[in-house]
Specification:
The complex is a heterodimer of chains A (170) and B (959). Helices cover 44% and strands 11% of the residues of chain A. Chain A is an alpha+beta fold. Chain B has five domains: 2-75, Ubiquitin-like (UB roll) (Roll), CATH 3.10.20.740; 119-276, Alpha-Beta Plaits (2-Layer Sandwich), CATH 3.30.70; 285-382 and 593-788, Rossmann fold (3-Layer(aba) Sandwich); 400-586, 3-Layer(aba) Sandwich (Dimethylsulfoxide Reductase, domain 2); 832-958, Barwin-like endoglucanases (Beta Barrel). Helices cover 29% and strands 17% of the residues of chain B. The radius of gyration of chain B is 29 Å and the shape is globular. Classes of the chains: A alpha+beta (170), B alpha/beta (959).
């Protein structure tokens, strides 16, 4: 039968081990939150609270850090994560136009998630391949020298799980 | 010292000064908003900028360390402009609705807007934070008034240690947040309200004050908190007449309070509304059966059988009478009983919540007029083992050091004290020590709130802690960490003691307690050498300063006195006594439990711990009180009184402000005994569970309506001021018992015992005559800081640290004690250990806190803490009822599934009459020296009614 032990998140083994390794090191909170986001794609509330508990940090502090940095997400991303680079080179090569096109075609606001949870889109700082500007990354895959015309092709490539790395792996 | 020039003045300032502190201490004011003297500077508000020669730009004076030869300017046109800009920026994001703002007149931002003549911002007005958090009855957080100074987050972390709030987001989106914006109640907030008190604007306001008037509408009355033994001074902000119903608008910590500074806990700050409860007793009452007997009514009536623990409308059992009628009945009964059965057939229970003056008069009445030493009070149930133990080893049974010294400790050793819940404001001292780098060691079977801050938590199985202490001493001797010089010069009986711990190695202790031997060794080293976690000690001795704090977890044991002696041994072994920030420090639980003991509300001593068995002292006291002789036999203790009542050897009980029907062990037995008692009179502020069993009930004033003095846990005598008027005809206890004593005296033909005191100051003056430790403590000397006894004469400054050069008894006495385990240990039939104690939001038997609306909101019901593992095994759901049964009784409480208790242990707070923990506890074996019962632990079994029902259903279905 269901026994109401207070809800405490079970952590993935590797994350738990990572926490143990970092437990005694100063400045561990950001590292561990970073690792947590890699694990879940975002920072789920019960997980953050459990992570803070294990590290001996107040939950309030973990929340403060998680909301301070743009990088950390407190809401789940879409199944496909579109990251439009708005670094200097990409910006000059029309990143904002590209962003508008993505948002328009996906019918979503920047930093939002589509209604069907298929896509989320965010602007990110330089991803380090300025030669290919403007650059968009989807699920970590680089699409360089992308123009507005090519946006629909990229979206189609990922829609409905066609190029989803998780499913491909499964 | 450093030489610094500020505004042309050459100043000498201490080495670790900041420029701001240097200026403030020399009377030079610098504008500031985010600074608070008790918090680490953050340099955020940019108001305290100063110009320092050699620096290109102005620097914040709050974070700038003073350096030798610095030349500083605190005022210039440039600084004025910059400060004005800083204020301008703040008000561009802050409503300027001062005309209707609660905080007007007491708001830092309003003050500086006025100083810099900013009626409105000169910048673009944009309020970024619109959130209003109105999610609790303690305080309101209105984010639009917040200036992000961070005082609230800092006090929460640096002083209180609750860490409930932090800055969320960043830039213009920053705000003060609970984790994931949960309601305050769901966060780790302890509702102490210290953030509310030090918020410079209206972002945080006490709910109680809303609409009750602004700063200038309210009058301030300073008094001492009615709750625990810390003795916080509180400033009550009173509504003036003509501003609604008179009474308290809100309360705040009094900055000059010796024990608390300006900080308070949730009970002190918010828990005063009990005094204005409609349930307060306002006239004397006589129970209907006695009223019939006396011809006051004709109605036939019998005392109902139901237990007072569940009684409703019990007030209907009584009829109101005049004070004369009530006191005459009591005097008649007492006098008749004394004449017929002798003075020892009467007993009195005094109160740890009444003033020194009340207690003095009460015990004087018992001893000088009635002629018995049968006077005791609930200190018997909390620290009688301390008084006995410390008196034996040191010669004086009280805290050896003062509370303020704890912040400077290098190591704080806490055992059997849930300090953050039972003595919250003292826990702030512990937190401050830890934040500065002190090591905190906790020996406790439960994970108490402070364990999160501890270097080491030795989670000993209930009752096995004595093995840990002895093993620590074994290690200290083995490793040569003992302070041999101190032992040689200041103590005696060391060898016998050393032999007693020789066999108790860490391995032996580990086997008994379940604590790893390595942890015990580590604790021994840290404590003995006073090691810090980081930072440097303020003391320059060879070893750091370690202090022991303990409480009921040590004392409420059948070997309580021995446990206290063990802790004394530990302190003497390492020389951690007689110096600042060291010592053996019993934390007293009630506002005046120290005072009630000091003033002789104990069966074996007169005021000032003068033994009744000492003939010379007896003769002295008899002369002072104007009687021929005083009884020489030691009187009955609380628990013995209950037994004697059952046996019929005592016939009359007089109780002043005590509630043994909740606080004593095995209260089923207490009820039976008190029902048998032929006559019981109780002076109370509410019709408590005990008062319901009385024949006569006298309405008393509460500490909020009294003057007189309380002695706090650090022996500091502080003056009370009446804050509220007494309800109805309620009277101060000292006054009532003077009146009663005179009436009894007349009936017994006793003249010459003085009860004609003009006021409490006159009572205190008589105390100075009879009690040497209070010899110099008259009301006119107390001021705002009070006086710490021993204070033998009018010119003595008081003694915050005891035993500095010599122990009270001469040499400190090492006492060899055996390691004993609790009387009732878990077995097959009753497999769980039950521990009892307090919860933050309630106090003692709950008569006051359970009538406080905000405190009740936070913790409304009795509960039992049970571990996740045990809950799973019993299929108990969090928040669902569960039966807890001991050999005495069975109660029903709500399960609280938690990791605070280890598997095999449950914990029940004893405040809740509907789930009264003390129905379960026992008084089978009292501590042989102090007669304290083992309230802290007994054996119980648990039953899950839901599982039982389910099983019954399954059986039915099967058949």
């Amino acid at each position: 039968m269901a026994v109401a032990v207070p809800e405490r998140a079970e952590l993935a083994d590797e994350l738990a081990k990572f926490i143990d390794d970092w437990k005694e090191k100063p400045g561990n909170l950001i590292m561990v939150l970073h690792r947590t986001q890699l694990e879940y794609g975002y920072l789920p509330e019960p997980v953050v609270i459990e992570v803070a508990r294990r590290l001996g940090h107040p939950a309030a502090k973990a929340f403060g850090v998680a909301t301070f940095y743009n990088y950390f997400k407190l809401t789940p991303p879409g199944r496909n994560r579109v990251a439009v680079c708005i670094g200097t080179a990409c910006y000059l090569k029309g990143a904002s136009e590209l962003t508008d096109t993505f948002c328009g075609q996906l019918d979503v606001e920047l930093n939002g998630v589509t209604e069907d949870k298929e896509f989320s889109i965010e602007g990110v700082r330089c991803v380090g391949c300025c030669g290919l500007a403007p650059v968009v990354m989807v699920n970590g895959e680089v699409h360089g020298k992308l123009t507005s015309d090519g946006v629909q092709r990229v979206i189609d490539k990922y829609r409905n799980g066609r190029e989803n790395p998780e499913q491909a792996a499964g | 010292m450093l030489n610094v020039t500020i505004d042309g003045k050459s100043l000498k300032v201490p080495q670790d000064s900041t420029l701001l502190n240097a200026a403030l201490e020399n009377g030079i004011d610098i504008p500031r908003l985010c600074h608070h003297p008790d918090l680490v500077p953050s340099g955020g508000c940019r108001l305290c900028l100063v110009e320092v020669d050699g620096y290109k730009d102005p620097v914040p004076s709050c974070t700038m360390a003073a350096a030798d030869g610095m030349v500083v300017k605190t005022n210039s046109e440039e600084l004025y402009k910059r400060r004005r800009d800083a204020v301008d920026l703040l008000i561009s994001d802050h409503p300027m609705d001062c005309a209707t703002c609660e905080k007007a007149g007491d708001c830092g931002l309003q003050h500086y807007a006025y100083i810099y003549d900013l009626k409105e911002t000169t910048l673009q007005k944009e309020i970024h934070r619109e959130l209003v958090q109105d999610d609790n009855p303690f305080f309101l957080r209105d984010h639009k008034y917040c200036i992000l100074c961070g005082r609230c987050t800092r006090v929460c972390s640096e002083v209180v240690g609750a860490d409930a709030i932090e800055f969320g987001q960043r830039g213009i989106h920053s705000y003060i947040a609970t984790p994931f914006d949960v309601e305050m109640r769901e966060s780790s907030c302890v509702f102490c309200g210290n953030c509310v008190q030090i918020c410079p604007t209206a972002a945080l306001l006490p709910k109680q004050r809303m609409g009750q008037g602004r700063e200038w509408d309210l009058e301030k009355v300073r008094s001492v908190c009615v709750y625990c033994g810390v003795g916080c001074q509180i400033e009550y902000l009173m509504k003036k007449n003509g501003n609604g119903v008179p009474g308290i608008a809100y309360a705040r910590g009094y900055e000059g309070g010796a024990a608390n500074g300006e900080f308070l806990c949730t009970k002190g700050r918010y828990g005063w509304d009990f005094a204005q409860s409609t349930e307060r007793l306002s006239e004397p009452l006589i129970r209907k059966d006695l009223a019939k007997e006396l011809g006051i009514t004709k109605q036939e009536w019998q005392m109902p059988e139901g237990s007072p623990l569940s009684a409703k409308n019990a007030i209907d059992n009584f009829v109101p009478v005049s004070w004369d009628q009530a006191l005459d009945v009591i005097a008649d009964r007492v006098a008749d009983t004394v004449k017929k059965n002798g003075p020892d057939s009467v007993f009195g229970l005094a109160s740890a919540r009444c003033t020194n003056e009340d207690n003095y008069v009460f015990q004087k009445m018992m001893r000088a007029t009635i002629g018995t030493n049968n006077v005791d009070h609930c200190a018997r149930l909390c620290h009688s083992s301390t008084v006995a133990g410390l008196a034996k080893s040191f010669g004086s049974g009280a805290m050896t050091n003062s509370q303020r010294e704890v912040r400077d400790c290098d190591c704080v050793f806490i055992t059997g004290s849930n300090t953050a819940e039972a003595h919250p404001v003292l826990s702030y001292e512990v937190i401050r020590a830890v934040k500065k780098g002190a090591n905190l060691i906790i020996v406790d079977p439960r994970k108490i709130p402070l364990t999160r801050h501890a270097t080491l938590h030795l989670q000993a199985a209930s009752g096995t802690d004595i093995f840990i202490f002895m093993a620590m001493m074994n290690v200290i001797l083995r490793e040569g960490w003992a302070d041999t010089e101190f032992i040689k010069a200041r103590t005696e009986n060391f060898d016998e003691f050393a032999r007693s711990v020789a066999e108790i190695t860490p391995e032996v202790a580990s086997e008994q307690s379940g604590v790893p031997a390595a942890d015990i060794e580590k604790a021994a080293r840290i404590y003995a050498l006073g090691e810090r976690a980081f930072g440097t000690s303020i003391y320059s001795d060879v070893r750091g300063h370690s202090s022991i704090l303990y409480s009921m977890g040590i004392t409420q044991r059948s070997n309580g006195t021995n446990l206290v002696l063990t802790l004394s041994n530990l302190a003497m072994l390492t020389g951690h006594i007689g110096k600042p920030s060291t010592g053996v420090n019993p934390l007293r639980g009630q506002s005046n439990v120290q005072g009630a003991c000091d003033l002789g509300a104990l069966p074996n001593v007169y005021p000032g711990y003068q033994a009744v068995t000492d003939e010379a002292l007896r003769t002295k006291m008899a002369a002072a009180w104007g009687v021929e002789k005083l009884p020489a036999n030691v009187g009955l203790t609380v628990v013995e009184t209950i037994h004697a009542s059952e046996a019929g050897t005592v016939k009359v009980g007089l109780i002043m402000g005590e509630n043994p029907m909740m606080s004593d062990p095995d209260i089923g037995h207490v009820e039976k005994s008190l029902r048998i008692l032929p006559f019981l009179a109780v002076s109370e502020i509410f019709l408590s569970e005990t008062a319901q069993l009385a024949h006569v009930v006298l309405p008393a004033t509460s500490a909020l309506e009294k003057d007189g003095t309380f002695t706090n846990t650090e022996r500091r005598v502080q003056k009370l001021t009446p804050v509220l008027p007494a309800p109805g005809s309620a009277r101060d206890d000292w006054h009532v018992f003077c009146d009663l004593a005179k009436r009894i005296g007349e009936r017994l033909g006793l003249k010459g015992v003085n009860y004609d005191f003009a006021d409490t100051a006159a009572v205190a003056d008589e105390i100075t005559q009879v009690s040497p430790i209070y010899g110099g403590i008259s009301h006119d000397r107390l001021g705002t800081r009070g006086l710490v006894w021993p204070c033998p004469d009018k010119n003595h400054p008081g003694t915050p640290i005891l035993h500095t050069t010599e122990f009270k008894r001469g040499k400190g006495l090492f006492v060899a004690v055996p390691p004993e385990l609790p009387v009732e240990r878990p077995d097959e039939e009753y497999p769980f250990v039950l521990s009892t104690g307090r919860v933050l939001y309630h106090y003692h038997t709950g008569t006051m806190t359970r009538r406080s609306a905000p405190l009740h909101w936070r913790e409304p019901k009795g509960y039992v803490e049970i571990s996740e593992q045990d809950a799973a095994a019993l299929e108990v759901l969090d928040g669902r009822p569960i039966y807890v049964e001991s050999r005495r009784a069975r109660i029903r409480a709500l399960a609280r599934v938690t990791d605070r208790v280890p598997p095999g242990t449950v914990f029940i707070p004893f405040h809740f009459r509907e789930a009264a923990a003390n129905l379960l506890t026992h008084d089978m074996k009292l501590d042989p020296t102090s007669k304290i019962p083992e309230l802290k632990m007994c054996a119980v079994r648990l039953e899950n009614p839901a599982a039982k029902k389910k099983a019954a259903k399954a059986t039915k279905a099967a058949s």
